[in-house]
Amino acid sequence: MSAARIVTLPGDGIGPEVIAAALTVLHRLGDFEVTEHAVGGASIDAHGTALTDETLDACRTSDAVLLGAVGGPKWDSTDPAAPRPEQGLLGLRKGLGLFANLRPVRPSAALLDASPLKRERIEGTDLLVVRELTGGIYFGERGRTGGGAAFDTCAYSVPEIERIAEVGFRSARRRVTSVDKANVLETSRLWRETVERYAGDLRRAARGEDADPREDVIELEHMLVDNAAMQLVSRPRDFDVILTENMFGDILSDEAAMLTGSIGMLPSASLGAPGTPGLFEPVHGSAPDIAGTGQANPLATIGSVAMLLRHGLARPEEADALDAAIDSALDGGLRTPDLGGQATTEDATAAVLTRL
Ligand code: IPM
Ligand code: MG
User: 124: alpha, beta or left, given left = phi > 0 and alpha = psi -120 to 50?
Assistant: First the structure.
């Protein structure tokens, strides 16, 4: 079997540091053909655009993509004509058709006291945010109109909602909480209606001949996004899959990240159609304030490597082993500054490696 081809996109800020850490771990697990490309601010500096055709093509023909982070004050501008690092990420999501973003939130036992929330509140939390990633207000028509006004549009189609609902139900063990703003937004009413119909079809199919008995036990509930934001911190362990649209998922997943003690802990997978390469990245951003100091927590990126192995390369045993090594390192006392400790990026990487 030939080595899997991985494209790395280190990007900006702490991106290159956490990607270097993750690659050390990946190479320990076997032979991978790794090629690096520029994205985000790094690509703007080198090529004048946040995503070149060459980078996108390299990703398209790879088996999986591992991304660090994009963005930083250097490229911040409100000028609508100026290139923005985030366009690199959005271009990759659209260009690779990555409509499903999976963000698992499972506080490691060792970190229960590192969260700003009380241990008794978060103990037992094990949820997955399933965020729609290529539609909604992120990709709708936008612009400035004369007279100092601006607009962004949110649009969703039934097929876009159905395909993400499918991922949500497939990933659920007991319940799908579909989050929307159906009391105000038309796109949310279409969302609710479509998810409801999808669940009904599943139940009917489950009663039919070639039934998957699991489908019958997945409960569906609908929740308004403001209420969901509140429930997420008051009773996080009641959630299983949170299925939601692009912008609500962006906001709720940062909130959910704090259940684990630090946003430095959250990995993610962005997936498209079966057989196409997925993109794996830590949820934290480029953290320009600590870039180059050696303080970045690489665990979210190493966790993203585990997701890459599981979802991108169908190597679940290695993925489990890597997750276990991360947990064991934390059990052993590993704490980077974001978790109240002093371990460096290098210390954290070494701690995972010795337990792998
Ligand atoms: C994320 C990030 C991105 C998003 C930004 C960098 C465009 O916040 O992946 O959650 O809003 O989707
Ligand atoms: Mg975000």
Answer: left
Fold agreement (1-107+262-356, 115-260)? yes
Q: Report how far ligand 1's centroid is from the alpha carbon of 86 (Å).
A: 8
CA distances 6 to 28, 36, 176, 234, 285, Å, are 15, 9, 32, 40, 21
CB atoms within 10 A of CB 209: 5
Active site residue 323: no
Q: Known catalytic residue: 63?
A: no
Across the 356 residues of the chain, what is the mean pLDDT of every consecutive 10-residue run?
Answer: 92 98 96 98 98 98 98 91 95 98 93 88 95 98 93 98 98 97 98 97 80 71 98 96 98 91 90 97 95 97 98 97 97 94 97 97
Going by alpha carbons, the residue nearest to atom 11 of ligand 1 is: 250
CA distances from 319 to 210, 301, 309 (A): 31, 13, 5
Closest residue CA from atom 7 of ligand 1? 86
> Would you kindly state where each structural domain of the chain is located, as residue ranges?
1-107+262-356, 115-260
Give every CB contact of residue 332 below 8 A, 6+ residues apart in sequence: 351, 355
**Catalytic residue among 250, 323, 327, 338, which?**
250
Using CA atoms, how far residue 262 sits from 105, 107, 111, 326, in Å, is: 11, 10, 9, 15
Which tokens sit at 247?
């912008």
Q: Which numeric CATH code is attached to 1-107+262-356?
A: 3.40.718.10
Class of domain 115-260: alpha beta
Torsion sign, CA atoms 160, 311, 231, 337: negative
User: Counting atoms of ligand 1 from 1, which one is nearest the CA of 101?
Assistant: 9
**Alpha-carbon span 93 to 270, nearest angstrom:** 8
pTM: 0.94
Q: Which atom of ligand 1 is nearest to the CA of 249?
A: 10
Q: Is 167 helix (H, G, I), strand (E, B) or coil?
A: helix
Cα(47)–Cα(105) distance, rounded to whole angstroms?
Answer: 36
